[in-house]
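Before relying on records like the one below, remember that each one covers exactly one chain. Contacts with other chains, cofactors or solvent are not represented anywhere in the record.
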Amino acid sequence: MKIDLSHLVTESRNQSSQNIDTLSTIEMLKVINNEDQKVALAVEKVLPEIAQVVDAVKAAFTVGGRLIYMGAGTSGRLGILDASECPPTYGTPAEQVVGLIAGGHKAILKAVENAEDSPQLAVDDLRNLNLTERDVVVGIAASGRTPYVLGGMEYARNVGAFVASLVCNPTCPMIEA
């Protein structure tokens, strides 16, 4: 069965960089820099939602809860990167901010095929962490449709944890979840 991804922003061609390979180095860098500037403007549009998540994390930390990132592939690695940076940068206990990646520890360095397609793996990962209603779970997926992350978000909601998503598509299942 072929899945139609053509409606996803993350799967469309960026007209600004379509011919980037034909540009001089300085022109190529200008295109990248111009595209990078759009990120701050996109973040600005969702500052109220980001504030809600920050407030939820603060409340969770106050009662001994944790911030748990969940993702697959690069998204999972970014959550792990942030989680691993919190203890040395902010002095947080290592168990306070946790990053989970589909496929487990070995997937940090090498892709684990099909792990992102299993919602049950996410449930198992969260059960192994003893997820509680005091925790915050942030699902990360550029597409906003990764089954591993969706499975984890659903389980976290059922446990009573605060659930948020970090996605790049303006409409997707993770925003609805």
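The chain has six helices and four strands.
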